Amino acid sequence: MTWSCKSGRAGFTLLEVLVALAIAGIALAAMTDAATGGFLATKTATGYQEALSRARSHMAALGSDTVFAVGDAEGEDGGGFRWRSSVREKERQAAGGLALFDISVAVSWSSGGRIHRVALTTLRLGRAAAGRHE
User: Fold this and answer.
1) Closest CA relative to residue 100, chosen from 63, 131, 72, 73
2) Both ends of the chain: CA-CA distance in Å?
3) Mean pLDDT (whole number) for 6-27
4) d(Cα 100, Cα 98) in Å, to the nearest integer?
5) 125 with 93: CB under 8 angstroms?
6) Would the pTM of this model clear 0.85, i.e. be above it?
7) 115: which strand partners?
8) Taking 60 as the threshold, does the pLDDT of residue 101 lie above it?
9) Strands of 114-128's sheet, edge to edge?
């Protein structure tokens, strides 16, 4: 909607300019919110990927060959990550002193005011390490 002034030139009214600025402001706020949400989602996904890598590393370190230290352990992993592992003898096999072990590793961290956690569990066949039995 344009109005003509006495000089014959067309232009926008103050009301039209204010409405256009309000629409632009709403659009900018929506784009900023979407960008912030994308950034936080990327940061969370990166945290999960790093925690999974750390959990796999701790899982691999628990059993050398087929010998497992039964019990719980936990500690700081740097970068705000904490880990906790658990090795339990599930059932003993008759042949060769082998046993089935229930093994779990969890890595947790805090991001965005929330605690996040990744956990891995597996069953493995092996022997209990000497000196550590539950």
Assistant:
1) 63
2) 84
3) 83
4) 7
5) yes
6) no
7) 110
8) yes
9) 63-64, 67-68, 114-128, 99-111, 81-92, 71-78
